[in-house]
Automatic annotation (TrEMBL):
PANTHER family assigned: DIGUANYLATE CYCLASE DGCM-RELATED, REGULATORY COMPONENTS OF SENSORY TRANSDUCTION SYSTEM
Residues of the GGDEF domain: 201-336
InterPro entries with a match to the protein in the record: Diguanylate_Cyclase (IPR050469), GGDEF_dom (IPR000160), Nucleotide_cyclase (IPR029787), Rev_trsase/Diguanyl_cyclase (IPR043128)
Domain of life according to the entry: Bacteria
Signal sequence residues: none
Annotated catalysed reactions: 2 GTP = 3',3'-c-di-GMP + 2 diphosphate
Designated name of the protein: diguanylate cyclase
PROSITE patterns, sorted: GGDEF (PS50887)
Entry-linked CDD domains: GGDEF
GO molecular function: diguanylate cyclase activity
Species: Tardibacter chloracetimidivorans
EC number(s) per entry: 2.7.7.65
Pfam family membership, one: GGDEF
EC top class named in words: transferase
Length: 342
């Protein structure tokens, strides 16, 4: 592609984003680029139809992206934000309308007051009272409508807030075990490393792997394998409550962040958990028989002052590998360093 063609494409993408009022995010750029590059005829046709009707906007873009390319976590959150904005716009519209009605009502009151100051005959006075009664009733009805709208909108906004919190929680939760997932772990570890450095306190990391997990799946089936994962996760949640942050890293690998613990303390905790899991027996509900015990290999590292997140994680993973190479069902602790965070 020539440079001039590239520039022209970028200009068309930019123009489409401006037309739809789309924020300049990578996901919106990707969507508009797909349209300009005509990578999907059906998608291009759908966008063209929305543009002709003047309905190409953020909500339409989210819907079309989900229809043609699948829905992302960002799409779910964007939909919720759009719905929230719609609710706020409706509230503002009702408040503005009621404000206008209130001003008209005040004008009617002022006019009636001035008329009364001049003195009125009984018939005119009666007509004035009838007019004011009608204006007052209309204002009461408008106020009641606003109250009803505010109550309804308040309920819908609370519902949207719950949906938003649920979407956020689900994006950071492993669906099988219920533990925080790798994304949640990365965010937590990043925050804790900064805190440990600032407070000059130790921070340790423990990776653990279920020994011979493939054998459970191959011999007893994936359903039992899932039960093993859930059992380990539930045990971690119970054991490390108040001690640290437990998460599923991927597959049969889990991770624990232990704030305030040095290598020796973290190693002792890891040994205790290994013993705790080793005392559990797996039982097949389908066959109604015991299928064996779970053993774990664990690797522990402590944050150093010159660590990046990647090097901190890599050393824990290396220690885990050493535990597995050493025969499994054991804890391996990295060699202490002089430049630890504490």
């Amino acid at each position: 592609m020539r440079v001039t063609d590239t520039v022209e494409t970028l200009e068309r993408v930019k123009a489409l984003m401006i037309e739809g009022g789309l924020p300049p995010t990578p996901i919106n750029y990707d969507l508009c680029y797909r349209y300009v590059a005509a990578t999907d005829a059906g998608f291009v046709k759908a966008v063209d139809a929305a543009r002709r009707e003047g309905k190409f906007n953020g909500r339409t873009a989210t819907r079309l992206r989900a229809t043609f390319f699948g829905q992302t976590e960002e799409d779910v959150l964007a939909e919720l934000m759009d719905e929230t904005k719609d609710q706020l716009d409706r509230i503002a519209e009702h408040v503005e309308s009621s404000g206008g009605d209130a001003r008209l009502y005040k004008q009617a009151l002022d006019g009636s007051s001035r008329s009364l100051e001049k003195g009125l005959d009984p018939d005119t006075h009666r007509a004035l009272l009838t007019k004011m009664a009608a204006a007052t009733q209309a204002m009461i009805e408008k106020t009641s409508q606003l109250e009803d709208q505010l109550v309804s909108s308040s309920k819908e906004i609370l519902s949207l807030r719950r949906d938003l919190e649920k979407a956020r929680s689900e994006s950071r939760t492993d669906p099988l075990t219920g533990l925080p997932n790798r994304k949640a772990f990365n965010a937590y570890l990043e925050a804790q490393t900064a805190r440990a450095l600032a407070d000059r306190k130790p921070l340790t990391l423990c990776f653990l792997d279920i020994d011979h997990f493939k054998n459970f799946n191959d011999r007893w089936g994936h359903a039992l394998g899932d039960e093993v994962l859930r059992l380990v996760a539930q045990s971690m949640e119970h054991f490390f409550h108040g001690l640290g942050f437990a998460a599923r890293y991927g597959g049969e690998e889990f991770v624990i962040v232990l704030p305030g613990k040095d290598l020796e303390a973290a190693g002792d905790i890891a040994e205790q958990f290994r013993d705790f899991i080793g005392s559990r027996t797996i039982r097949s509900k389908q066959r109604n028989e015991d299928v064996g015990k779970i053993t774990l290999s664990l690797g522990v590292s402590q944050m150093r002052r010159d660590d990046s997140l990647e090097s901190f994680i890599d050393r824990a993973d290396t220690a885990l590998y050493a535990a597995k190479q050493g025969g499994r069902n054991q804890v391996a602790i990295e060699a202490p360093a002089t430049e630890v965070a504490a």
